[in-house]
């Protein structure tokens, strides 16, 4: 049997910091107390004017590849998960391939909004298991959402941030990857996202007026407040049952980092201590498709994930897309 193993992780956090106080100065309204109490965000990082999403990917990828001892030419495939690409077309993965000099790698992007990176990890892991011509795959989650922020919209400009996280996967006869479960509630596809710039509403002078002059991320309509706290435990339970494991077997959980209160409520439902999870929205804001690999890397760097540990990843995002995966840590 061939299994995918995570050889190493990496991340890139852009230099520029915007604290809650900085955001208050921009929007002219107090938001710090609300953000800390309701979602746990204290500050966020934004990319520089001369950076694009592929640049964030390259920095995170270089760190993961250096730690894995993998050279650009060793990569067979590069998968980028993002819903804030360099261009509508072609794929950001091609720009990353060129910038890394990974000339032997195939490339494509996966967009499942903020559930995209766990989805990409699932696809990459199964590719390694199914086809022995794939030995090394780079899987990057990247978010350049600051380019799509309407700074007049308090409900979005306070949350979203930029960053990237990456893993290098390698083939092994030991598992590694132990399964994934994807699900979507497509009836909410029009609830949150960037709705201008595609075929539905092309970017024209008229349509751009709707979002302060540029395609912007929007919360259009609400979905139930309990959406994640109901679905995350259900996804994880199904995943663990299939692997003949229980919630108590999991050593570390990594969740989508939009709302710390949601993570606390989920851990309570799972009857697991908060010491079995970590969070990064306090220092990095909400980094969407990048938040799971960035937070995974944060746990690894802090020594909170060790060889032999069982790690459960659980994501949700616009769409509403959801993805969960189980990995035995072998690095
Ligand atoms: C986004 C989320 C944090 C907003 O919280 P909420 O309690 O639903 O907030 P509401 O929109 O009901 O707003 C209630 C009040 O809180 C305040 N508020 C809401 N969002 C705010 C923000 N981002 N910053 C500051 N204040 C905010 C406002 O005062 C608002 O009152 P108003 O509408 O009269 O102005 C919450 O709905 C959530 O966690 N959703 C999950 C999203 C998710 O998982 N998405 C998947 C990944 S993208």
TrEMBL record:
InterPro entries assigned to the protein according to its UniProt record, in alphabetical order: ACP_syn_III_C (IPR013747), ACP_syn_III_N (IPR013751), Thiolase-like (IPR016039)
Key words of the record: Acyltransferase, Transferase
One GO MF term attached to the UniProt entry: 3-oxoacyl-[acyl-carrier-protein] synthase activity
Protein's recorded name: 3-oxoacyl-[acyl-carrier-protein] synthase, KASIII
Domain Beta-ketoacyl-[acyl-carrier-protein] synthase III N-terminal: 108-184
Biological process terms in GO annotation: fatty acid biosynthetic process; secondary metabolite biosynthetic process
Residue span, Beta-ketoacyl-[acyl-carrier-protein] synthase III C-terminal domain: 240-329
Flavoprotein keyword on record: no
Annotated CDD domains: KAS_III (cd00830)
């Amino acid at each position: 049997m061939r299994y995918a193993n995570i050889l190493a992780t990496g991340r890139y956090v852009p230099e520029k910091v915007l604290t809650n106080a900085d955001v208050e100065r921009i929007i002219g309204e107090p938001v710090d107390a609300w953000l800390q109490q309701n979602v746990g965000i204290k500050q966020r990082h934004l990319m520089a004017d001369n950076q694009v999403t592929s640049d964030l990917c390259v920095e995170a990828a270089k760190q993961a590849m250096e730690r894995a001892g993998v050279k650009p030419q060793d990569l067979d495939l590069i998968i980028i998960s993002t819903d804030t690409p360099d261009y509508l077309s072609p794929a950001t993965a091609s720009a990353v391939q060129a910038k890394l000099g990974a000339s032997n790698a195939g490339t494509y992007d996966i967009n499942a909004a903020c559930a995209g990176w766990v989805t990409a990890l699932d696809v990459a892991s199964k590719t390694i298991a199914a086809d022995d011509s794939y030995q090394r795959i780079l899987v990057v989650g990247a978010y350049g959402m600051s380019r799509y922020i309407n700074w007049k919209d308090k409900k979005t400009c306070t949350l979203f941030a930029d960053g990237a996280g990456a893993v290098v996967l390698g083939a092994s006869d030991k598992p590694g990857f132990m399964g994934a479960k994807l699900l979507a509630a497509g009836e909410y596809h029009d609830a949150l996202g960037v709705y201008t710039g595609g075929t539905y509403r092309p970017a024209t002078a008229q349509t751009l007026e709707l979002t302060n002059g540029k395609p912007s991320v929007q919360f259009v309509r609400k979905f139930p407040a309990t959406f994640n706290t109901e679905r995350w435990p259900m996804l994880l339970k199904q995943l663990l049952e299939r692997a003949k494991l229980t919630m108590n077997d999991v050593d570390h959980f990594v969740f989508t980092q939009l709302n710390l209160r949601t993570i606390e409520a989920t851990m309570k439902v799972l009857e697991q201590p908060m010491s079995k999870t970590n969070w990064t929205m306090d220092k990095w804001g909400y980094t969407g498709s990048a938040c799971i690999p960035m937070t995974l890397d944060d746990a690894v760097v802090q020594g909170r994930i060790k060889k032999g540990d069982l790690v459960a990843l659980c994501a949700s995002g616009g769409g509403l897309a959801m993805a969960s995966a189980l990995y035995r840590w072998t690095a």
